[in-house]
Amino acid sequence: MGKRKSHRKKERIKYSSIHQVPGQVTYVGSKTSEVPSVEIINYNKERVDKVHSQNVEDAFNFNKEETITWINVNGLNHTKEIEKLGKHYNLHPLILEDIVNTQQRPKIDDYDDYMFIVLKMLYYDEHNEFVNEHLSIAVGKNYILTFQEADGDVFDGVRERIQNARGRIRNSGSDYLMYALIDAVIDSYFTIIETMAEKIEVIEDSLFLENPEEGITQDIQDLKREILKIRRSVFPLREVISRLEKSDHELIDQKTNSYLRDLYDHIVQISENIEIYREMTWGLMDMYMTTISNKMNEVMKVLTIMASIFIPLTFMAGIYGMNFEHIPELHLKYGYLYFWIVLIIVFLGMIWYFKRKKWL
Amino acid sequence: MGKRKSHRKKERIKYSSIHQVPGQVTYVGSKTSEVPSVEIINYNKERVDKVHSQNVEDAFNFNKEETITWINVNGLNHTKEIEKLGKHYNLHPLILEDIVNTQQRPKIDDYDDYMFIVLKMLYYDEHNEFVNEHLSIAVGKNYILTFQEADGDVFDGVRERIQNARGRIRNSGSDYLMYALIDAVIDSYFTIIETMAEKIEVIEDSLFLENPEEGITQDIQDLKREILKIRRSVFPLREVISRLEKSDHELIDQKTNSYLRDLYDHIVQISENIEIYREMTWGLMDMYMTTISNKMNEVMKVLTIMASIFIPLTFMAGIYGMNFEHIPELHLKYGYLYFWIVLIIVFLGMIWYFKRKKWL
Amino acid sequence: MGKRKSHRKKERIKYSSIHQVPGQVTYVGSKTSEVPSVEIINYNKERVDKVHSQNVEDAFNFNKEETITWINVNGLNHTKEIEKLGKHYNLHPLILEDIVNTQQRPKIDDYDDYMFIVLKMLYYDEHNEFVNEHLSIAVGKNYILTFQEADGDVFDGVRERIQNARGRIRNSGSDYLMYALIDAVIDSYFTIIETMAEKIEVIEDSLFLENPEEGITQDIQDLKREILKIRRSVFPLREVISRLEKSDHELIDQKTNSYLRDLYDHIVQISENIEIYREMTWGLMDMYMTTISNKMNEVMKVLTIMASIFIPLTFMAGIYGMNFEHIPELHLKYGYLYFWIVLIIVFLGMIWYFKRKKWL
Amino acid sequence: MGKRKSHRKKERIKYSSIHQVPGQVTYVGSKTSEVPSVEIINYNKERVDKVHSQNVEDAFNFNKEETITWINVNGLNHTKEIEKLGKHYNLHPLILEDIVNTQQRPKIDDYDDYMFIVLKMLYYDEHNEFVNEHLSIAVGKNYILTFQEADGDVFDGVRERIQNARGRIRNSGSDYLMYALIDAVIDSYFTIIETMAEKIEVIEDSLFLENPEEGITQDIQDLKREILKIRRSVFPLREVISRLEKSDHELIDQKTNSYLRDLYDHIVQISENIEIYREMTWGLMDMYMTTISNKMNEVMKVLTIMASIFIPLTFMAGIYGMNFEHIPELHLKYGYLYFWIVLIIVFLGMIWYFKRKKWL
Amino acid sequence: MGKRKSHRKKERIKYSSIHQVPGQVTYVGSKTSEVPSVEIINYNKERVDKVHSQNVEDAFNFNKEETITWINVNGLNHTKEIEKLGKHYNLHPLILEDIVNTQQRPKIDDYDDYMFIVLKMLYYDEHNEFVNEHLSIAVGKNYILTFQEADGDVFDGVRERIQNARGRIRNSGSDYLMYALIDAVIDSYFTIIETMAEKIEVIEDSLFLENPEEGITQDIQDLKREILKIRRSVFPLREVISRLEKSDHELIDQKTNSYLRDLYDHIVQISENIEIYREMTWGLMDMYMTTISNKMNEVMKVLTIMASIFIPLTFMAGIYGMNFEHIPELHLKYGYLYFWIVLIIVFLGMIWYFKRKKWL
């Protein structure tokens, strides 16, 4: 249990260190990287350019009307670089704060010439720990900026489609790229849901073992906590996407709308599944309680059977251990035999009684 | 329990394999058929034509103004055929995706010249397993397309009415046929509700047996899961039908509206019943808990009665088993008799005490 | 328990037999009568006519402008007669279906020249079984049609007021008669609420008996079910009456509005009471659980006291029952006396201990 | 418990006797007085007149434009007098019905030239029984009528302020008097909340006593019932006051509005407190359950310790009570001493074991 | 437990003493100071003046157009001084009442030329007691008045920023200062949330100790109470800030709006965290219950094992302690040895049985 506890401790964020001065860009997350990793993909119908750099300035060359530029920054602890990018693309100071504030909940902010979306990548890392990674997306006329906490994301499918010009992506604007990115994130939630279902199943199964380990209460409580956290990351997204769909921002093309509606369907479906697993998890504690009680019942039965059978027999033996001068039975020739016969009859009677009660 | 578990495993869908690329038509369900089964019913006031085929192209001949064509496709794994049909009837790529995505929740999408509805057929199959079959309906001016996972459906009544010109169906437009199809689906939900009621009753009754099998906790948990799934399939339908009723799509005739309102009444009634059974099911765990506790009480009583009666008696026997040199009682002529008299009095006293306490 | 179960079985309706073909009038209730009973009351300010018949055609003579005609039909299995009446008064086919579908929930439908209201009469019959009787009211300019499942209703007060011209009823239109009828139904709900309160009280009291019968869990579960059903019959009525009050249908006179508002107050009051009793009932299971646990505690205490007192004493007796050659105490002159003194001291010590612990 | 039960019985109202004929003024409450008590306070900026009478007609003299007349009637069983007053002030018949129907929930009705408000005075009487007294207020241009069930109310502060011209009351219209009266009622709710908090505390504390009396389950259930009733009396008031505040009735002066908003703040605050106490009360049953279980644990520990220590010792004594011819230990010189040494070692071992397990 | 109880008693406020006469300024809080402490900060872009005084009149000199004056009053028991200030700044009498009514819930009132906001500072004092301090803010064109119960607040960061002209604060109007103050309060809530998380963790961990102290039930109940109180202080703030953000009061500059939206994000985030911790806390009682039951299971197992092993053995010893004349086994040469062999076999059999059952 030591491990479990220490994990929980580590995970807790010092909320109180967040946002000391409004507009000040301070990173509060736990993941850091030594150098920022900037990945620039610049494309239009005809061509794709791909650049990896540690320097955000490299991105500024691509900012032209006729192409779409996707700049992906990994490593939110490099606040300087992010501020440079923010200045170049004219982002509001509070947005820069939101980009590095990993505690920010999913939201969407409309500005005149760009939109800003915050969402969460949820996954289980190699140690099977639940990870909640902060992701910010700023969408402009012909650029998209994405900011992640660390390397490794769910966008490989999107990159591949850009590279190979699969689907509509190369022929569409930055709004479709935005859609494709959010879609990739939401699709990755389905894995979370599968893991949740598996966890519930594991606990349910272990509840029927002879001796479920005691830590199971803590496991259930931890699962509750996890589900509540996932809910908090997923549910606000419903409103974000609903607002995106209903938005009349000039960035959103009419054709993209049906894709956004599809996205909304997906996020509602995920939310419903979370609610179902939530109800199931809340029921696990009751299941455990009945399991414990059933076990206690069984223990009690063993005790009761043993005691009920032998206590009367011991009493009988006690009778004939008495030292009264005149106990006629003691002097019978077959007294001891008779005693055993009676004893066995009593014994069988008890056995029969417990059999009838279905305790044996 | 092995069986139960393996069933649950099988049923779980790999959500993560859904919707890899937007607009790509990939079937994710578990049911497959070797050849697609296409059933075409073409009718108007005067005549009915009925064709069975494995080829969707056969349907395109019927697409004329003066008749209504109902094309029913069984087997969603034949995505090629579905795409052909989609192309002919000019359906949006995302709709084709929804047709084969069996995880899609019930919904309605309005397009300019057609409507698209997703719902679920719920039934128990021959093995008494709960089945949730995906059904999509596309309604146009003079055609209806329906897509099902497998052969066998709830539309036989509708087919018969078309064949025999019973009711208003032959004199009405495609909107009335759509109504008749949805109505058939919703009517079939009543069977589900009956089964639910039966299952609850079976569990309730088994809770009062002497020894309910332990697996009952799992049964209750499974029933909860089932109800939650049914809810998820049924509840969104309320909004679908409400939107259908309030829709001012030119496809929906004024006269069909009161039928749709009737449909809405039915779906609300089903939802209310589900909620009632849900509350009853959630109460079952408490019932089971009291049942266990009552049983333990009974076990404890047996133990307490046995122990309370015989422990004092054994003590008395022990007293006169002692080897003190001077125990006057031992030398009384009727000592042993007196002992038995006292013993029987004590015994009867205990019996009386427990009788008074109503434990016997 | 056999009786209880069979009752529950009987009560369950085959939902699946409802509404096979839209617009087809099929009775699904359980009550039937051999002949329909039609009661016609025709009145205006000056006079009242009252006719009992088995023939609905008798009612058609009264349909004149200057009087109000109330036609009450008992026996929904006589669908033929109901269809005749429907045809005469020009009712929509779906309304006829609703009249005989006893599963239809409370609702109101507005038509151009009449209104149609469905509600439920709730009462306990002579066998103290909860009865949910279907009642439909069609209100036109100068007529009211009411349809009931069986003889016997809550309208005797209304009949008497018409007969004796008490209150405003003879001077008002069909809307006031409609109000008076609904008012009579809702007033009868108060009896249901009283019975509910009584039932909760009976269970609460029996929970404090020495030995509540085990069936009490089932009683609580049944009461839950009953309350849920009552809720389902009563709650939709709030919306029905609210819509009636806000309706601008020409049938509803301005003056009737404040009466309808009063009705709304009543139905809200009933709903609130149901919710309170619901919460109380849901708490009963917890109460029962604590009762069981308290009883077990008491059983355990008896066992513990008996065992704790006699086990050490028996041990002491055992000591001096040993056959060691040299046990000095055995040879003391007053050894046996001393033994008893020690024994009584130990005994009193245990008693004192348990008294201090308040177990005795 | 007899007392408690009889109290509950008494309190239950025969709902079914309410409102037999619409508009008929029948008192259903339990409090009655022999003569009506009418108190008239007539005031304006310059003077105050105060009259006590048993005759409502005495009030009619004061009905003048230039003063505000407050007529307070105690004793709702004098329906005749109330009808006289109603006729004089031209009140709607349904209002008269509401005045004497003590089951009417809080509400507000707007009429052209007056407003009618129903609310509840809640207090604990001298026997510490919860009392829910019905209060109706009718407010006209220059008069206010208040109707109470019995003598004794919360308006003494208001009377004193009128008498001594303290605050704005003498300079303001009937709307401010209405505000002052409702304010006095709502202020009195704070006492109810204090009592609730105290009751919860008393139960919580008694749960930690060695032996909470068993009736505590009933106490908790009764407290739940009380809180639910208080909620029912208080919560509708939120809407009443909100509507009063937003009302544009000509009776309500602009200046009174901020006072009404203040009132709304108070009622929301009270509602929130009720909800908190409700949650606390609902948690009490769980607390009690753990208390019982803890006690049972303790009982079990005593039993287990006693049995575990003495059963092996008794067994040992039994061994040397056997009559085998050749038991070598029996013939050892210090056999009895050795026996005691082993016995004490076993005894101390058990004690050490239980100490280590923290059971001792 | 004595301490805990007395603390709770102290904390409870006599609600009933609040607001006896409308508009009368009576302090009801528990904190008092001998002299009022007035702190005046007067600043504009160029300069800052800072004055500490015991006299509110000192503030009136600063009230000029070209600077912003922040007057902070500590000590709400000095109602006289507050009334002076209120008169000077022309505040409504009901506002003065709200300033000193520490029971007032968070709210916002718009007046023509100023806004009035009530909120709560939440913190744990040096004795680790939860403190809920009342804070009122009145915002005018070029002044801000803040009223606190006692010295010590969360505004030191704001003071420092004004002093050192850090951030936008010196260049902005009174609306930005208002934002900065509310922001400081809300930021301090994060500490509360951290403490809550810690408390839950402490309880969870102590539930897994061998012997959780019994007071833990009370701790959980107290934590529930605390969370409910925090909720009550925090949740209304959501609406306050939402209304502030949407307000079109001329005081609120366009540029401040995005800061207010940021504030709203924070308060929603805090609310969500509170809800999560609330759910976790509500689950603690169930966890405790299973912990108790598990412990009881363990106790029962020890008893059952001891009893089941030694009761049969004692019976065997009893058999050969009998005094029958003819018990052949007693006279066997190795009878006693054989007896021990059988006894050890039985003993090992029982041990094996319990090992197989995993009880050992």
From TrEMBL, chains A, B, C, D, E:
<keyword id="KW-1003">Cell membrane</keyword>
<dbReference type="InterPro" id="IPR045863">
    <property type="entry name" value="CorA_TM1_TM2"/>
</dbReference>
<dbReference type="InterPro" id="IPR004488">
    <property type="entry name" value="Mg/Co-transport_prot_CorA"/>
</dbReference>
<keyword id="KW-0406">Ion transport</keyword>
<feature type="transmembrane region" description="Helical">
    <location>
        <begin position="334"/>
        <end position="354"/>
    </location>
</feature>
<keyword id="KW-1133">Transmembrane helix</keyword>
<comment type="similarity">
    <text>Belongs to the CorA metal ion transporter (MIT) (TC 1.A.35) family.</text>
</comment>
<dbReference type="InterPro" id="IPR002523">
    <property type="entry name" value="MgTranspt_CorA/ZnTranspt_ZntB"/>
</dbReference>
<dbReference type="Pfam" id="PF01544">
    <property type="entry name" value="CorA"/>
</dbReference>
<keyword id="KW-0812">Transmembrane</keyword>
<feature type="transmembrane region" description="Helical">
    <location>
        <begin position="302"/>
        <end position="322"/>
    </location>
</feature>
<keyword id="KW-0460">Magnesium</keyword>
<protein>
    <recommendedName>
        <fullName>Magnesium transport protein CorA</fullName>
    </recommendedName>
</protein>
<dbReference type="InterPro" id="IPR045861">
    <property type="entry name" value="CorA_cytoplasmic_dom"/>
</dbReference>
<keyword id="KW-0813">Transport</keyword>
<keyword id="KW-0472">Membrane</keyword>
<comment type="function">
    <text>Mediates influx of magnesium ions.</text>
</comment>
